[in-house]
Amino acid sequence: MSEISVRPLGEEDWQTYRDARLTALRESPEAFVATAEEEEAFEEDFWRLRMNRSARLLAEREETPLGIVSLGRSSDENPKTSQLFGLWVTPEARGSGVATALVRAGANLAREQGQSQLTYWVGSDNGRAVAFASGFGFRPTAERRPMRVVSEDDEDEVAMVLALGGDRGSPPAEF
Ligand SMILES: CC(C)(COP(=O)(O)OP(=O)(O)OC[C@H]1O[C@@H](n2cnc3c(N)ncnc32)[C@H](O)[C@@H]1OP(=O)(O)O)[C@@H](O)C(=O)NCCC(=O)NCCS
Questions:
Q1: Is 93 a domain residue?
Q2: pLDDT tens across 110-144, in order?
Q3: pTM for the whole structure
Q4: DSSP letters along 89-122, please?
Q5: Protein residues whose CB sits closer than 6 Å to any atom of ligand 1
Q6: 122 — phi, psi (to 5°)?
Q7: How many other C-beta atoms lie within 10 A of the C-beta of residue 3?
């Protein structure tokens, strides 16, 4: 089988990103805070803005999209920490290394940007995503937040962190 490739999407790729994002929201509604219904209503201008707000990475095999992930810029409070979010792999491609390829590309990009840590907020009930992140090397922290502002369930998200480079002797970036 041919190789999986991961590429950053530019503003001109907004439709490719939109299609993958809406497919992800429809396929795994429980995994994301946003809903397909909300995002289907967004206009082209907003999708273009989104492409510039965060890095969007697309995994493909022979030009067939297999998954996406986003890398958000750091905040003023944590200038050396970037956020990974919106990770999704097509059901057929799960368990085949696509998630690893996407997160590795996200971690490499953050490292190139001079970042020292990657944060990933994941639903604490999302066993597969938590297992994947742990297997990749993310460590759970004590940070929790409600998954949804308004919701009938009370699922939390847990912050998981990945140190980017350095060695165990380096002081961790403040979370
Ligand atoms: C989360 C996701 C990106 C991970 O990609 P993946 O290809 O499924 O990940 P992998 O198969 O490489 O790793 C999953 C791990 O969870 C394990 N696993 C599978 N189902 C599980 C479950 N129900 N509970 C706990 N662990 C589980 C697998 O055995 C594997 O562990 P291993 O690598 O030690 O064998 C993918 O499952 C997905 O897109 N899910 C739907 C969307 C989603 O939840 N996104 C995350 C939003 S924060």
A1: yes
A2: 999 999 999 999 999 999 999 999 999 999 999 99
A3: 0.93
A4: E-GGGTTTTHHHHHHHHHHHHHHHTT--EEEEEE
A5: 28, 31, 87-89, 94-95, 98-100, 122, 126-129, 131-132, 135
A6: -135, 145
A7: 8
Number of residues in the chain: 175
At 150 the pLDDT is 59
Among 103, 128, 138, say which to mutate for ligand 1: greatest number of ligand atoms within 8 Å of CB. 128
Domains held by the chain: number: 1
As a whole number, mean pLDDT of residues 41-63 equals: 97
CATH code, domain carrying 102: 3.40.630.30
Residues 6+ apart with CB under 8 A from 19: 65
| Residue 86 Cα to ligand 1 middle (Å) | 14
pLDDT of residue 173: 53
Q: Supply the range of the domain harboring residue 126.
A: 5-163
Rounded to whole angstroms, the Cα distance separating 103 from 160 reads 13
Question: Mind listing the pLDDT tens digit for each residue in 98-110?
Answer: 999 999 999 999 9
> Is residue 171 a part of any domain in this protein?
no
> What single-letter amino acid sits at 39?
E
Question: Looking at the predicted structure, is the pLDDT value of residue 164 above 60?
Answer: yes
